[in-house]
Write a structure and sequence with these properties.
The chain contains two helices and ten strands. With 163 residues, it is an alpha+beta fold. The longest helix is centred in the N-terminal third of the chain and has 20 residues, at 2-21.
Length: 163
């Protein structure tokens, strides 16, 4: 009972810190525990879905490690830089909401209280009429070269509008 009350209080603090720091809009699809923590949430790998705001019908699924414990529960822990991405066409047809730049940061979400962010970048490949999405993390001092990439082909009858 005490653990449930503690967890509820920590969830409220995490919710407040999420609203305060303006995290990207992600839908939690699932998660698996990877390490038990006595206090706070367990360490885990989460799968989140991000709908591309400028391309209706494309969703990116990102899996990444989330640190638990007390720091992770209140949003003070620094998550690991590794992430994996898979973007798919989820409705037919794909619709574009305006012209797309050649490269654009589509989503960004904090991975630590101040210094580290997860990015999902969209790159347009006009030669192949495809959308390429890459995920990576950066830091104020030192970023990580670890990244993951995926591509969504767009039918030739639906050319990608570019700026």
């Amino acid at each position: 009972m005490l653990r449930k009350r503690f967890m509820a209080g920590m969830a409220a603090v995490a919710l407040f810190s999420t609203a305060f720091w303006g995290m990207a809009k992600a839908e939690l699809i699932g998660e698996v525990d990877t390490a038990f923590r006595w206090l706070g949430k367990d360490d885990r790998v989460v799968i989140e879905a991000y709908d591309d705001p400028k391309v209706r019908g494309v969703t990116c699924y990102v899996s990444r490690a989330r640190t638990g414990g007390i720091k992770g529960t209140v949003g003070l822990a620094e998550d690991r830089a590794e992430a994996s991405i898979a973007c798919r066409q989820v409705s037919d047809p794909i619709e574009f909401r305006g012209k797309l730049p050649r490269q654009e940061d589509v989503f960004t979400e904090r991975m630590s209280i101040l210094f580290k962010r997860l990015h999902v970048v969209r790159v347009v490949d006009p030669t192949r009429n495809a959308l390429i999405y890459m995920t990576y993390s950066d830091r104020i001092i030192e970023g990580s070269p670890q990244n993951s990439v995926t591509a969504v082909p767009v039918g030739r009858s639906n050319p990608i509008p570019m700026k």
